[in-house]
Design goal:
The complex is a heterodimer of chains A (174) and B (753). Chain A is an alpha+beta fold. Chain A folds into two domains: 73 residues, Ubiquitin-like (UB roll) (Roll), CATH 3.10.20; 89 residues, [2Fe-2S]-binding domain (DNA polymerase, domain 1, Orthogonal Bundle), CATH 1.10.150. Helix content of chain A is 37%, strand content 12%. In chain A, a hairpin with a 2-residue loop joins strand 3 and strand 4. In chain A, helix 3 packs across helix 6. Chain B is an alpha+beta fold and 753 residues long. Chain B has three domains: 181 residues, Aldehyde Oxidoreductase, domain 4 (2-Layer Sandwich), CATH 3.30.365.10; 152 residues, Aldehyde Oxidoreductase, domain 4 (2-Layer Sandwich); 357 residues, Aldehyde oxidase/xanthine dehydrogenase, molybdopterin binding domain (Aldehyde Oxidoreductase, domain 4). Chain B has 19 helices and 28 strands. In chain B, strand 26 and strand 27 form a beta hairpin. In chain B, helix 2 runs parallel beside helix 3 and helix 13 runs parallel beside helix 18. The chains are: A alpha+beta (174), B alpha+beta (753).
Chain lengths: 174, 753
């Protein structure tokens, strides 16, 4: 524990023992046993390991633990709570609108890339609540899906964006 | 937060407690003769549940639910949902009353591999007929209990009632719950007629999606067990010729001396690292200095098709109908061309992963195989252990679309665990997966087709050159020195009539397979819709050329040459969905050439895999200054017979259209004379969001037909429709794919020069 380093993940502080050069991914999946971020390439090419760091989508497979510092790391597991904070909701939903839209659109096949897809789509909608299709494609372009579910992901993000406008203030909004 | 550690043990008996009741009497016996239902072999073998017992397939629980034992793996294609629909339909249970359990050797029926779009098409009928047989047995029991003849009984949601006496009823759970049927499975119970279907053909949401969206789904890559080590393999970056495997000249163990937690494991030429911390295993595998013998035995990407053409081959006439030679002499128009297809890779998005716990006298291997019993055999081989001592349990991995490195990973994890004496979780790195895949084989094809003056196809000849699939996993090659070997084919490994000519009414046909000896090529295996992209690319462009020579619209030309109404059905369905308007060559292309800049084009094609009927239309855009093609909209129609769940099929079709665009426009394995060089997503690019077409899918539902498979059949026609659209847009035909800018631009320049 002497070498312990504190990191802030999903609004909790954790003391981890990994060497400073360890990519954040291995800390999250190994020491913290989180299943959201997952290994895809180790080269920041595909997006399966994505997390939010201070709200910015980041490839955890090439982010050394030492560079994270005190910044807030959010994984898929913490995304509904992050979304609730963003939206000022008093209650944490079970799923973000993006995740619900993935279910409603029956978008997923194997689902391996959906960690990154969810993280990136939530980041996008937090910055740009009503993106055009071209803006969705551009924002998501760095995330790969081998099953070819892109068309349904686009529709799901559009659906999630619509949910934001038409349902008005969700229950519990302050 | 739920700890991700999965139960790790041998839960065979626990499995039978599903639904709360302990069910015993799972039938096991030694090898029995293979039996068939509807001509489909069911594999039997040592220490497998006896397929001839009803209890092997279905358990009814006291709470009036049922567990269906399904021998196929969920790959995100929705087969679990669809197969449960089939079982619930015949049992007259609600969908919420049926479930399946994790697939594992020893406990689950061996239905063969989840390949060739077979789970619903070939596995479904057996599950369905087992369910019908269970229902029949339950009605007989109810008849005795209620003292009413069977023909006065009705069933809804597992409640058996007497017609006209609503107070007299009994549930399945009361009749048999928790106890075995102890009945043979004969396959003789009649199935429900299609007009009585309640669940078949319904869009039931897929069972696996909610957990996948929530991040709660346990993929193979997520499984961890107490006390496990992390493993990585060490190989040359990219495979060489299949026969050569990889030979170690020297290993410098001091190169990883600084990584205290890492241990080197070596067995002949198999090298792996195990470490308590995953990052230590990754670093050590990367930094270990190994000198490899890498013979320059490959032709290189540039020399590939030349070597194939010059090779000594084993030739087989696959089909000879009529007199093709004479028909070619009499033809009004003949088109004859050579086509080339590349090696393409499975490259699952999450590299393959396996977790093994090998003890002195037993082994448990968790992995993402498409065939648990075949993997069990391979793991037993590499461990030197009797097959019945090895248990293989399935966890879904990342979409594999055929035999990627999952058996290789399972063998490697098992070896590392055997040597380390601890459970080992092995994951391949990206370059392992890209470099050591069992690639979809390249093809060289000569095609010649002739028509008469009325535009009828009179003669058809196709010669295909390719090698068969490798059967020895790389781990086994390296660790045991097992020589490379290939499966004998034919089927999807060879020129086949399924997707060559069979859709058209052609009186004179000749199909010839030229089998290459695979030793000096890359290791091959089945990649989604094996060879079909190459077949369709060659055939459907040839058909298009003939249409234009005959002065006919490509849709009209195909309609005139197709007699089978199911082929016409998909062709018309896709044409209608796309709003097809008749096209003529030349004028359009000339107009478009004059326009400059970006031009658009539209193409059509038909095709399939081993069954079913598919057609596609492609709308593309070509940037004439760069040669870059973008597929803007792809339309696909698929008649897969009875479509059990249109929602699942549409998702598969949508994925196929996107994957077909990726394979036609971008994907190509590259290699030098010594090794594969496309080792990541930059050197092996796949389609991205910004290049992704809009997709329109049309399911041609045939409730009165048998299901015939829907996971592969759109690949060929969708890819070929893109190639035909390129001609429509620019007047250019390419004979080699992928249709990259580097291939398209010189052709465009040549035409305008």
């Amino acid at each position: 524990m002497a070498n312990g380093r504190a990191i802030r993940v999903n609004e909790r502080f954790w003391t981890v023992n990994a060497a400073p050069d360890t990519p954040l991914l291995y800390v999250l999946s190994g020491e913290l046993q989180l299943n959201g971020p997952r290994f895809g390439c180790g080269l920041a090419q595909c997006g399966s390991c994505s997390v939010l760091i201070d709200g910015v989508e980041t490839r955890s497979c090439v982010t050394p633990l030492s560079s994270v510092g005190k910044r807030a790391v959010t994984t898929l597991e913490g995304l509904p709570a992050w979304y609730a904070r963003q939206q000022g909701l008093s209650k944490i939903p079970a799923l973000t609108p993006v995740q619900q839209a993935f279910i409603d659109e029956q978008a997923i096949q194997c689902g391996y890339c959906y960690n990154g897809m969810t993280i990136k789509a939530c980041e996008l909608l937090s910055k740009m609540p009503q993106p055009s299709e071209a803006q969705i494609r551009s924002a998501m372009n760095g995330h790969l899906c081998r099953c070819g579910t892109y068309p349904r992901i686009i529709k799901a993000i559009q659906r999630a964006a619509q949910a934001g406008t038409h349902e008005g203030a969700p229950e519990g909004r302050r | 937060m739920k700890p991700p550690t999965e139960r790790f043990g041998f839960p065979r008996r626990d499995l039978l407690k599903a639904g709360g009741a302990l069910l015993i009497g799972f039938a096991m016996r030694d090898t029995v003769p293979a039996q068939t239902v509807e001509g489909v072999a069911l594999v039997t073998g040592p220490d497998q549940p006896d397929p001839a017992r009803l209890d092997t397939w279905i358990a009814i629980h006291a709470d009036n639910t049922a567990t269906i034992f399904i021998g196929f793996v969920e790959l995100g294609q929705g087969c679990t949902t669809a197969l449960l629909q089939m079982a619930a339909e015949e049992l007259d249970l609600a969908f919420s009353q049926v479930k399946s359990v994790r697939l594992e050797s020893h406990t689950m029926p061996n239905q063969g591999g989840t390949v060739a779009s077979a789970s619903v098409a070939r596995g479904g009928p057996r599950i369905r007929s087992a369910a019908a047989e269970a229902r029949r047995a339950l009605l007989q029991m109810a008849s005795q209990k209620l003292d009413v003849p069977v023909d006065r009984l009705t069933v809804s949601r597992g409640v058996v009632s007497v017609a006209g006496a609503p107070d007299k009823s009994i549930t399945y759970g009361r009749l048999v719950g928790g106890k075995p049927f102890n009945l043979p499975y004969t396959g003789a119970a009649p199935l429900k007629p299609f007009h009585d279907y309640k669940l078949l053909g319904e869009r039931i949401p897929r069972l696996d999606i909610p957990d996948k969206a929530a991040g709660k789904y346990v993929h193979m890559q997520h499984v961890r067990v107490p006390g496990m080590l992390h493993g990585r393999i060490v190989r040359p970056r990219g495979q060489g010729a299949y026969a050569d495997g990889a030979r170690v000249l020297s290993v410098d163990e001091t190169s990883i001396a600084g990584i205290a937690g890492a241990r080197l494991i070596r067995k002949r030429d198999f090298i792996g690292i195990v470490a308590g911390k995953e990052w230590d295993a990754v670093r050590a595998a990367r930094e270990l200095k190994v000198t490899w013998d890498q013979p320059a035995a490959l032709p290189g990407t540039e020399g590939l098709h030349r070597q194939m053409r010059a090779a000594k081959t084993t030739d087989r006439t696959v089909l000879e109908n009529g007199d093709a030679a004479a028909a070619f002499r009499d033809a009004a128009h003949v088109v004859s061309q050579t086509y080339r297809g590349p090696y393409q890779a499975h490259v699952p998005f999450g590299p393959n992963c396996a977790l093994a716990d090998v003890k002195v006298n037993s082994a448990l291997v968790l992995c993402s195989t498409q065939n648990i019993y075949d993997t069990r055999r391979k793991v037993a081989q590499v461990l030197g252990m009797p097959v019945e001592k090895v248990t293989v349990r399935y966890y879904e991995g990342s979409g594999t679309y055929g035999r990627s490195c999952y058996d290789d990973a399972a063998q490697a994890a098992a070896l590392l665990s055997q040597e380390a004496g601890r459970p080992v979780r092995l994951q391949f790195m990206r370059s392992d997966e890209h470099g050591w895949d069992n690639f979809g084989p390249a093809q060289l094809a000569d095609i010649r087709v002739g028509i008469d003056a009325a535009g009828k196809i009179t003669a058809y000849e196709y010669h295909g050159w390719q090698h068969n699939w490798g059967t020895v996993e790389t781990t086994q090659q390296l660790a045991l020195g097992t020589p490379a070997a290939e499966s004998p084919g034919p089927g999807s490994q060879e020129v086949s009539n399924f997707n060559l000519g069979a859709m058209y009414a052609i009186p004179n046909m000749r199909l010839v397979n030229h089998r290459l000896e695979g030793a000096r090529y890359l290791k091959g295996s089945n990649l989604r819709s094996p060879l079909d992209v190459s077949f369709s690319f060659a055939q459907e462009q040839t058909i298009d050329e003939l249409a234009y020579l005959a002065g006919l619209d490509p849709l009209e030309f195909r309609r005139r040459n197709i007699r089978d109404e199911r082929w016409l059905g998909v062709l018309d369905a896709v044409a209608q969905a796309a709003g097809w308007t008749p096209r003529t060559p030349g004028v359009r292309a000339e107009q478009r050439r004059a326009a400059g800049g970006r031009v658009t084009g539209r193409g059509i094609a038909v095709g399939t895999h081993t069954s079913s009927y598919a057609a596609a239309v492609a709308d593309i855009e070509v940037d004439r200054t760069t040669g870059r093609i973008v597929a803007r909209h792809l339309y696909g129609a698929l008649d897969a017979g009875l479509c059990v769940n249109p929602g699942c099929l549409e998702n598969q079709m949508s994925g196929m259209l996107v994957q077909a665009a990726s394979r036609m426009l971008k994907e190509e394995v590259t290699f030098s004379s010594t090794n594969v060089t496309s080792l990541d997503w930059n050197s092996y690019p796949v389609l991205r969001f910004e290049e992704c077409p809009a997709v329109t899918t049309v399911v041609v539902q045939r409730l009165d037909q048998k299901p015939s498979g829907g996971g592969e059949e759109l690949m060929g026609p969708a890819a070929a429709a893109i190639a035909n659209a390129l001609f429509d847009a620019t007047g250019v035909r390419l004979r080699e794919y992928p249709l990259t800018a580097a291939r398209v631009l010189p052709e465009l320049k040549q035409r305008t020069a």
